[in-house]
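Dear H.,

Thanks for agreeing to be a second pair of eyes. The structure we're designing against is below in token form, covering all 202 positions.
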């Protein structure tokens, strides 16, 4: 009999498969799938609101509303690229994170602040063109290289905006252990992203 942890992993895998099927049905024009996906993408303004609050509200409510619509258009246009490697909510949150950062950058705000992942991003040298997009890609590639459990905790914390308690419950670890994995992963990203970025520049 599989352990509870294995059952949870199977559940996450099944949910990703179901989301992949939902996107395929949406692209095929199934109206029920389109409606269901539209509801799921209602997470976009909520995610942007959370990001905005964490960053000290650099964007106004009107900015957030406009950005939400822009991101939804972007996501619908990118549906064909969804491969089911993450849940739809997590996948959409990555668009939110990148586009939010770009919007704040355009307003001339400090992107790093005191938030650990933003600090890691800000520390990565990037080409002059689209620096935030390059940095986000480097972080996502770094998370893939880092691997679980640290990468999973970081993704759940930043892309799904879960608390350490809910992360601990999902992964069957204590909140303190989740924090340990989180900060260990952030430290690893900082150590490994800068050399990789320098390689890209040379």
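And this is the sequence the design step returned. I haven't edited it by hand at all.
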């Amino acid at each position: 009999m599989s352990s509870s942890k294995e059952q949870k992993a199977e559940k996450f895998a099944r949910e990703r498969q179901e989301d992949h099927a939902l996107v395929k049905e949406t692209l095929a024009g199934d109206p029920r799938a389109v409606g269901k996906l539209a509801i799921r993408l209602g997470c976009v303004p909520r995610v942007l609101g959370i990001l905005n609050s964490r960053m000290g509200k650099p964007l106004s409510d009107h900015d957030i509303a406009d950005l939400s619509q822009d991101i939804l258009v972007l996501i619908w246009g990118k549906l064909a690229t969804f491969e089911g490697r993450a849940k739809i909510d997590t996948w959409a949150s990555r668009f939110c994170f990148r586009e939010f950062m770009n919007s704040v950058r355009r307003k001339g705000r400090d992107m790093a602040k005191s938030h650990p992942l933003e600090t890691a991003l800000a520390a990565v040298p990037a080409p002059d063109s689209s620096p935030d997009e390059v940095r986000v890609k480097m972080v996502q590639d770094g998370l893939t290289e880092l691997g679980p459990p640290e990468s999973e905790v970081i993704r759940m914390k930043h892309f799904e905006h879960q608390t350490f308690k809910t992360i601990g419950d999902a992964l069957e670890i204590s909140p303190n252990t989740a924090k340990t994995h989180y900060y260990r992963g952030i430290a690893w990203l900082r150590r490994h992203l800068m050399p990789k970025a320098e390689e890209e520049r040379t």
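Two observations from my side: Confidence is low (pLDDT under 50) at residues 109-114, 122-131. The radius of gyration is 17 Å.

Warmly,
E.
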